[in-house]
Target: Zn(2)-C6 fungal-type domain-containing protein
Amino acid sequence: MEEETIPWRIGSQGRKPRTLVSCLPCHRRKVKCDREQPCNRCLIAGRSNDCIYQNPRSPRASFPAIGAFIDGKARLARANSWASLCWEFEEARPYLFGLDPEFRAMYDKVEGLKSLFLSSNGRFANKDNLQIASASLRLSKSELLSYISDRGVIDTLLSNYMQTFNRILPLWNPTLFDEEIARFWDSPEDADLTSFAQLFVMLGLSCHSAPANTSTLRKHDLSEMSKTFFTIGEAAFNNSRFKSLHDLAGVRTLCMMIIARMIDLVPMHDTQDGTLLFGLTVRAAQNMALNRHPSLFSGMPENEGINRIIIWTTIVFMDQFISIHFHLPPLIRREDHDATFEFSIQDGSTTSNYGIWEERLKDSSDENQLAFLALMSALLPTVSVILEQLHSTKPALNYEEVGKLNKKLRDSLSLAMQLAMGKMEGATSADVSMQRGLLEIFIRRVLLDLHQPFAITQEASANAEHSRLAVLECALALMICQEGIFEAAGQHSQMKCLLDLFKDDFGIAIIYVTLGIRRGDFTVSPVDTLQAPPEEVAWTALRRATELTEWYTGVSVKHFRIYAGAMYLVAALEALETGAPMMQKMMEAGHMIIAAIEKRKGKGAECGNQTTLHTNISMFEGFGEPEEMGGFINALGLSSGNAELPAVNPCFYTFQS
Model:
């Protein structure tokens, strides 16, 4: 039997006329149309009624078509994306995906709220409307210096950056930073454009986390300052020589631009916007051999060698963060680099195994930063193994390997707990809480990804049960983390960047707990000290987590989508629990979403991204002290009888000031 082939057409013979997919107004103006109904350009121009399509799309897709699409996405990416997880909630499918014809009007109305996040050019923006600067914007050095003439404000912002972002995503060794800033102020007119870009992007990030009640900042609009600094910084970088001459300042600038996108300070318009920029960052760093240990380069100053390892460690973390959140294989493989610190942590003290680099870092860093870098260096190789496997075409991990990786992650989690439990000197400060928060949330999310393939199986095996319990435990722990960070941000404004950084992880946790309640997974025997049934505690955590997403819903379109999804899920779950009509509950949720967004966007109310946060409702109200949740998590913990999957050590998010 001959193999059937498809001929490749050459030229224009037989070409069919192109189908017009843009709306008629955009087609007449020859501008790009997003093909929505109405499209974004027509919304902005106030001509929604004129947004007509020559070839209208079907009002709704069929269940099989959307199901096949989501199933295909799950196979090509992984099964813990938002769409794949929500598809498991069969009763809510018609409403979550806009398939119910009676609910379609409300669905479209809620979807239309995203127009409130559009900037003047029709692209999504955050509440500060930050945009990438045009390459045509050119400023002289005297003009650049005029924006940083107030040394008091600039020094305050730089100090704040070092105590916030540099604590959790370090790009500087403090000693080298002080030396470089001193050189800049000695002769600022001699600095190149890359150095200016680095400085302005640092200032833009710092404005996001700086407390507005600081005496030197009280009279300034930090949002406007952040917008100005980013515009100038990216313009300076676009006009710099970085593309032809790579240096550490340029790599740091690229990293900070990506951080701004990770926290939605600068909107990431699509997947490619952030991932392509990060690809450039990795290649630039590799071109400078940042992935190789500085001991290989004779004569390299110790401070520079230390700083190179710090930058590379952060780049590896960002690679894994992007891999998790965009369902892509990591760019950096374990065998591609050896630039890492070799530390061991025993009984809360950090010791280096070898080398002048670790000893020099120990002399120039505080104990907490040293421990954080040591924990990060030890954690990243394990995460790399997991992500390389999950996003590869190789067969899935066997459960023996899952058990070993699970143990390594939980060992790292236990060490991260020591960082915040006072076992290390100075562990009660807010900056250490940030470091511990980043490590804990990151590890919990990786554990979710590790166990998810086994948790969704229909097998009644012990392996599947262990993974289901691990998923529930980690999802609840993420909710506790979110609650703790939110409350801590009321006293320490720098904590709020963690809420923006891990918003997707908190949203995924909401879905996991919702599905767990729906399946009846929270049926473990109540712990003696617990004052309510486990399912009721899970319900309380779920409702509180949804309240917290509402607080930030006006910040960006991503925050809005997470909040809307959470509201729909809770409404559907309440309908099943109470026997109320599903349509009624979903319509109520739609009206609440619209009211919340219009309050924060339509009426110009302050968004959740504030300096001071207050909350009078505790996740644990009515259930005793927060520590009681730990008993509940322990009850969900994996059996201590399994050597590969030890009992879970409960993680309470308690901040000490």
Remarks:
- Residues 574 and 585 are 8 Å apart (CA to CA).
- Residues 462-488 form the longest helix (27 residues).
- The mean pLDDT is 78.
- The radius of gyration is 26 Å.
